Here is the input.
Amino acid sequence: MTQQTLVQGEHLPAALSLAAVGVPLLPLRAGKVPFGNCPDCTGNACGGRPNMKTPGPCTCPAPCHGWAAATTDPDILNSPAWARAWLQAAGVAYYPGGAGLTVVDLDNADAIAWARANLPATRVVPTTRGEHWIYRGVMPSANAVRPGVDVKSSMSYARWLGPGTGTLTALPDAVRALLVKEPAPVRAAPAAVPAGGGRCPHRMPAFLERGIAMAEQRITEASSAVHATVFATFLAVLSTHGRCGCLTEAHTERLFAAVQAKGESPRHCADAWANALTRLGL
Here is the structure.
């Protein structure tokens, strides 16, 4: 028996068995990490999935794009392009999100105790340092959601350590909630722009209220380029109302709250506001 046959015999049969029941697999090298990019993909030259920012399979024939390389196709798993990886493989990993699963990775005894007290029972797989609790359902992945706890599901991989014990249960809200950040406290808004003297030329309070409401809506509905949207919105508000003195702290607090609800930091709010004031010479 050749060395290649021996090494492949340690990992490939398990991979093929799991792939047959719909679990996407990939080989792991020493250190429990995926194989590095092949020469064609070095420096993201392949145009495939080296950045791995959205779900979907790798288009490269070699298993070099982490979780995106995971597959259930036996022809790919057995292909010459994967032969060297299986020869060097130190283990097998799977893509939980691709299998419709979420793994709660508990790294120590304290994390396990927390899970037993707060999460519903499900299938459990022992690991070298703790346990994997596996639920049926997919969610975003994140590391360090609490001390000793990682979540591996969409766009992540987990080491295959056996089928585990217990009944697989539905992904609970308690696990989804681990990724929900506590809202940052709303930083006190800067003082209102000093009045330019005299009565507001807009005369109608409803005009200002409508402008603030439209600014809040524009910020809230931003789906991309949030930083740029915030700055442009602040510019628009200040260019219209920044010199007449009708803006109050209540108005700026509303704008800051809308920005922070999009996940931006209080520091970014203050910086964007100050930059808008500077741009307008206020």
Residues 212 and 251 are 7 Å apart (CA to CA). The radius of gyration is 26 Å. Strands lie at 25-28, 91-94, 101-106, 123-126, 131-136, 142-146, 149-152, 158-159, 169-170. Confidence is low (pLDDT under 50) at residues 1-9, 183-189, 191-198.
